[in-house]
Design goal:
The chain is an alpha/beta fold and about 170 residues long. It is built from eight helices and six strands.
């Protein structure tokens, strides 16, 4: 029986050279389904196209974040109610896969419910926790805590990860 592989990304896989390499490699071992913004990245995959017009953070969530964030960090609720996450979760409901490749931590959080951690590979690219939000502001510190929560709950214990360089791998390891 041919294994089924999900490749998930909250980007356009067809425009991502690293993700395209993963698609081609996965096609050599199994039936591939991709879930991302943009068109199907390859004619031999089953593609779930996410609506790129879905906002990254909806207005209602942004208001709640501004009201709640100083008092409580509701990261699981925030993540699962982001429009693009809710859209992907609905599109993947009822499906199962033998293995998955997630393009970054947010996609890993999404697919952890669909495969065992030992069947999940996460491509982390750069070292986002230390590079994205580092201006010392309250918002930056909250974003840092969110990224730490995301990586601790989504990436920890997966089968494998890749990054862009040995230096980035060392930063994640420490």
């Amino acid at each position: 029986m041919t294994p089924s592989v999900l490749i998930a990304s909250f980007t356009d896989i067809s425009r991502d050279p690293r993700a395209m390499k993963q698609v081609r490699a996965a096609l050599e071992v199994g039936d591939v389904t991709t879930c991302s913004f943009g068109p199907s990245p390859h004619p031999d995959v089953s593609h779930i196209a996410l609506n790129p017009e879905a906002p990254v953070l909806g207005g209602r969530i942004k208001v709640l974040l501004n009201d709640l964030a100083p008092k409580v960090e509701a990261f699981p609720w925030i993540f699962h109610n982001m429009p693009y996450v809710a859209q992907a979760r609905k599109a993947l409901r009822g499906r199962s896969f033998d293995a998955a490749i997630a393009n970054n931590g947010d996609a890993a959080k999404l697919v952890r419910r669909l495969v065992e951690p030992g069947a999940l590979h996460v491509d982390l690219h750069e070292y986002f926790p230390g590079l994205v939000f580092n201006d010392g502001s309250t918002e930056a510190r909250r974003q840092q805590r969110y990224l730490n929560w995301l990586h601790n709950t989504a990436v920890s214990g997966v089968a494998s990860t890749t990054v862009v360089s040995p230096g980035i791998a060392q930063r994640y390891a420490s």
